[in-house]
Amino acid sequence: MRKILLSTVALAALAGQAFAADLPSRKEAPVYIAPAPVFTWTGFYAGVQLGGAFGNTNLNLPAVGYSANLTNNGVFGGGMIGYNYQINNFVLGLQGEFNGSGNGSSTKTGYGYIGKSIVSVTAKENQPWFASIDGRLGYAVDKALFYAIGGVAFTQAEPSITYALGAATATAYKNSKSLTGYDVGGGVEYAFTNNWTGRVEYRYYGFSGNNGYYGVYGSGVAYKSGNLTDNTVRVGLAYKFGAPAPVVAKY
To answer: Do the bridges between strand 219-240 and strand 43-61 make them parallel or antiparallel, or are there none, so unpaired?
Structure first.
């Protein structure tokens, strides 16, 4: 009788364990943590920039034998808009920008001749704005982008000349002309977040000369302004529109 009772208890215990094993587990599933989105440089962006320009220009008046080489320095600021497309580590981009400029040359006084009369000439040239349309080619190392940039550039040149012929009262003349040239440079850009980036950049601008005409005491004096150049250093801040969607696991 005792053996039968012990056998019954053992069978009941085994049956209970088997039943418990068949019951659904009440242990809670681990909390899902979505992975951080993978950063990409692909997308449209817009931003602002501020910098300094250091260059030179020259102004020639062949008719009076006057020539001056003028420095061309100043501070500039403006905006940019563009698009990047990333392929593996390489980034291709197109960018347009416009900058208002305080660039202006030094004032230089020299002397020339009209006939046998000495002409005192004071020359200066301002550059109120410059703009460009550029291509960018970069190499991305995570959130850092090292790039080269270059394209077609545009600017406004405003040379001014003051003449004094002998003891006559000085007469000032000013002209303005749009110039087309090129720009080339490079920089590094870093993404602080998925949307905000900052950059440091060097750019060189070169513009073709322009010919103009000033009237002097009823006669004419032609001028030629050429080799207008700008070496620029700038910092910029840009906002990249859109962010990559987070990766969501499917169950």
So the answer is: antiparallel
Q: How sure is the predictor about 249, in pLDDT bands with cuts at 50, 70 and 90? A: very low
Three-state SS sequence of the chain: CHHHHHHHHHHHHHHHHHHHHHCCCCCCCCCCCCCCCCCCCCEEEEEEEEEEEEEEEEEEEHHHCEEEEEEEEEEEEEEEEEEEEEECCEEEEEEEEEEEEEEEECCEEEEEEECCEEEEEEEEEEEEEEEEEEEEEEEEECCEEEEEEEEEEEEEEEEEEEEEECCCCCEEEECCEEEEEEEEEEEEEEECCCCEEEEEEEEEEEECCEEEEEEECCEEEEEEEEEEEEEEEEEEEEEECCCCCCCCCCC
- Contact (Cβ atoms closer than 8 angstroms) between residue 144 and residue 96: no
What are the residue ranges spanned by the domains of the chain?
A: 50-240
Global model pTM greater than 0.70: yes
Question: pLDDT digit string (tens) for 31-45?
Answer: 666 566 678 999 999
Q: List Cβ neighbours of 174 (8 Å cut-off, separation of 6 or more).
A: 158, 159, 160, 161
Q: Which two tokens stand for residue 79?
A: 């905006």
CB distance 195 to 240 below 8 Å: yes
| 8, two tokens | 């019954």
Bridge partners of 141, per DSSP, are 144
Q: Which residues are registered as beta bridge partners of 222? A: 213
Residues 6 or more apart whose Cβ sits within 8 Å of residue 33? none
Residues 57-105 have pLDDT tens digits of 887 777 777 788 888 889 999 999 999 999 999 999 999 999 999 888 7
- The third-level CATH classification (topology) of the domain covering 50-240 is Porin (2.40.160)
